[in-house]
Amino acid sequence: MNTRTYYENLILRNIKNIPDNYLPVLYNFFNSFSVIFKNKEKQHEKLKSTGFCGTWEDNRSAEEIIAEIESSRTGFGKREIVL
Length: 83
Fold this sequence. Notes:
Blueprint (H helix, E strand, L loop, with lengths): L2 H13 L7 H28 L11 H11 L11
């Protein structure tokens, strides 16, 4: 028996013990979980497409991004940092 079949049988066996009035709640739970899982799969595919950690999406120029990085530096103990 493969893993999927094993867990499907466990889930079905447990569902039979749930009172009827809780079945809509259980359905909503499974539906929400499915949506989350699909979104995670999309994110994973996006990460795989770059081979690292996703694509960079920014409308700013390189100069603007560099300026922001430089302005947000704290100085590491008041040392002057020059690029």
